[in-house]
Amino acid sequence: MSEITPLLNGRPLESVPPVRSYARVHKLPVPPFAVIGVMCLLFGVSLWRGGIPNPQLSKHQAKPIRVITSNGVQHEHFCGDTKQDSGYVKLPNKRDDHYFFWYFEARHNPETAPLVLWLTGGPGGSSMLALLTENGPCHVHPDLSTETNPYSWTNEANVVWLDQPTNVGFSYGPDPKDADKNEDNVAENIYWFLQGFLERHPELQGRKFFISGESYGGHYVPAAAHFISHQKPNGTLAINLQGISIGNGCTNPVIQNPHFIDMATNAYNISFVDPAELPKLKTKAAHCGQMMEACQSQPSLCCDADGYCQDNLESVFMAAKRNPYDIRQPCATSDTDVVQCIAKDIELITPYLNSPNLRKFLHVDERVGDWQLCNFDVNFAFAKSFDVMSSTSAFVGDLLDDGVRVLIYAGDADLECNWSGNLAWLQALDWKGSAYFNTTESHDLVVDEETAGSVISFEELTFVRVNDCEWYHANLSQWYHFIPQLRASCTLVMGRVNEKARLLPAVQAIYGSTSNKLKIKRSLIVLGIVTAVVLAGSSVWWLFFDEHEPEAVAADEFICGDTKNEAGYIKLPNKEDDHYFYWFFEAKHNASTAPLVIWLTGGPGGSSLLALFNENGPCRIQPDLTTKVHPYSWTYEANMIWLDQPTSVGFSYSAGGDHDYNEKDVGENLYWFLQSFIEKHPEFDGREFFLSGESYGGHYVPGAAHYIWEQNKKNEVTAGEKSINLQGIAIGNGWTDPVVQYLHAPGMLDNSYNVTLLDEAAAEQLKIDAAKCAELTRQCQQSPSESSCVEPYEFCVEHVFLGLSANQTGRNPYDVRESCDWVDFGFCRGIPLIEEFLAQDAVHKYLNVDRDWVGGSDEVGNNFIIDYLQSLDNHVADLLNDGVRVLLYIGDADSVCNWSGNKAWIDALEWKGKEAFNAAEEKSLLTQDLLNPNTPLTDAGTVRSFENLTLVRIFNAGHMVPTHQPAASLDLINKFFKNAALA
């Protein structure tokens, strides 16, 4: 454990150009928050001006842990019994500076676990504080023995706690002329420390690396990470930087200072300000921000700015006699008394670290005096250089743009580095994903069925606000400002995710509306967030750093959504050489009991991936071709398959000439697909099963369900294939009975949106053409053949469908509320991003495909011309008469498969419940936002129901209801699956 100096291959150290762009930093609209007086921001800001209590040094020696090895040799360990290393690395870029570290190997999987560097704030605070009271392997008892911290971040990470800058903690450098004073120094020193440390521990070279910290670590961490990310190895070791995490950090004081006032309204109903004075205080907060911003370009103004913000903001809040680091706790107002309020838990650390036997064990240099929590010379140097007044948020923007992951977490009872200010600077951050992050909705973080906070996440950036929890570690209750320390009982794991993961809501949670529940899995190996910030410590921390997946979850599951998924092919045993492509996603909630549902997009010839990415699937494609979790996915409580069919659609293919032409083919193929899928997934054998789809799915779904129903009847008589537990079908804006629906095509001319689609003459002609089209279609149905059906098909397309096209009406026929000049797959001016996303080699590899995606197959469209004009209403009647549940839901802004046509054919349907259904009362459809259950019910449409048939009209939605009304459609389909009342 002797000290070493990083080698430079025999060459002298070259000067490294500064990487910090002050011009860019100072141009940021950074309002203030941070440095109100000379302080160890480690614990906040101004409070430490009164000094730290000087506890009586105990006469006790630190008590070691005695460990006997397998060969009977006894060793003494301090702070746990895992492999550890401590000592110094001499910095080659400095004159004579020696950085002290205490390193602990991971308790689990140390050979693959990431390397994590922890930096306590201040500036000037020793990281030993965090090690012994927050996220380290042990806590100190009054007799200077230690107990193991089960929530240590070392559970699945190799962690280094580093004392820096020079002369902090046990680190030292005797030359005052070479003192550190800003983030340039911090960043360069940490880089060279890591060079020496990795040379000392070659097993960690190339290992995934993260930098973490809190409070003034909001300066240290971004600066060091930015410097590391810009270094090009030239005789030095490459550092595999993956991400940074900051807890209750001071990063952008210009923005954070004015947000001090936001704590006047807090979750704990603590009164800081007389409501009558709040308007004046807001004005002063704005002026504080203006002064701080001016200080960024004119340092001479910084002292005045600091004084104004302290006198007019912080002093007002301090007068409330609350602990500024945990406002739930009462506290006196004087500086000294405040320190007493927050310092009683560190009284044991000083005697422990100054114990001679521990100093010897740690290889503390004899030239180093007593360990002190905070070095005020360092603190003053950083204040004098105005580092404490500057922003490091621009570094975070650069890191994000380079793909480095960033986690910002904040306990919401902290006043000094409060959650509101942290969120504000993130929302002001200039990076490529800013627009998307700022429009991403917050989702609940739920632990043990209780809401523990909220999460906002987009791509590499995640912000977590952590609320109160049921109880707190007895001796650590004051330290809400220090995330990894307080909420041991609330420790959680948001899921072990890989680089592509997002901290989703709830489980999107564990990504993607107003309050999606972020269900987090507990784990035997909890990395505790012993701090009031459950997420900060281990829980979120684990999610952020660990790359292991939850049990039974494939490695790259997060390419779309956040749940277990599977993609690939099933070769149909009933066909010559047909291979059906599917993408299956497990339910986010209750996957082991949730039903199995297949979705079929229409066309005919449309790929179901169109719906997956744009309607009811687990993710949405972003402009940079990444994905974002879709919180209203139908996978909320259903195991969903999006299936490309018939053959030649999407990624499905055939090497032979065994083409499909009608619903008999569709039904048979889908039945055999299910036989193979259930054989592959026996957990779904006997599970409740539903078929769903839209548009031409009004043919596919009844056709396939009817075939399955018939096969089930046969299987009851003879031992055959697996019986499929068909419970129901759901069809959105379906094309089911062409004769009736063509007749009602003009029904959209009188619509509830007061949109004029055609002039009077064109409207009258459309009515004439629709009647003729219906008659021609009836003739085709009487003797279906190519000769009897092609001409009617062409007439109806040209005179009815095209008669209401965007070219004629100037409106999107799939959503008449939208002005449009041309449409593709229901989207004005084309489908967004799907083709580009699915053309990527990485996506092909993930999906196990080796061919181009076909969004719409002309071959299938041509083959199904006869089928297109046939009616499937009799199939629906058979299903209803046998107790199969049927849901028809129709967005009433669609003119292609409109509301009036769907209502007309279902009203005319001959089945045993016809009269009762037609006489049933039409009621309001009141839907609940499942992700935000505290919001009022929404009047989303109308519903009429009798026994197993339900007809729903959805307001303010077009052809694709899940796209236009995601919350309503999710509640609707969820109730349908559960056979719950809709009105």
Describe the structure in your own words.
The chain folds into three domains: 22-254 and 349-432, Rossmann fold (3-Layer(aba) Sandwich), CATH 3.40.50; 558-742 and 827-977, Rossmann fold; 743-824, no CATH class. The strands form seven sheets. It has an eleven-stranded mixed beta sheet with strand order 3-4-8-5-9-10-11-14-13-12-15, sandwiched between helices. Strands 16, 17, 18, 21, 22, 23, 24, 29, 30, 31 and 32 form an eleven-stranded mixed beta sheet that branches. It has 31 helices and 32 strands. By secondary structure, the chain is of the alpha/beta class. The longest helix is centred in the last third of the chain and has 23 residues, at 760-782. The chain crosses the membrane at residues 30-48, 524-544. One of its GO terms (molecular function) is serine-type carboxypeptidase activity. Pfam families: Peptidase_S10.
Number of strands: 32
What is the general shape?
elongated
Question: Which class of secondary structure composition applies to the elements?
Answer: alpha/beta
Mean pLDDT: 82
Which strand order do you get reading across the main beta sheet? 3-4-8-5-9-10-11-14-13-12-15
Per the CATH scheme, the topology name of the largest domain is Rossmann fold
**Name of the CATH homologous superfamily of the largest domain:** Alpha/Beta hydrolase fold, catalytic domain
Which features characterize this protein?
single chain; 983 residues; alpha/beta; Rossmann fold; 3 domains; 11-stranded mixed beta sheet; 32 strands; 31% helix; elongated; disordered N terminus; transmembrane helix
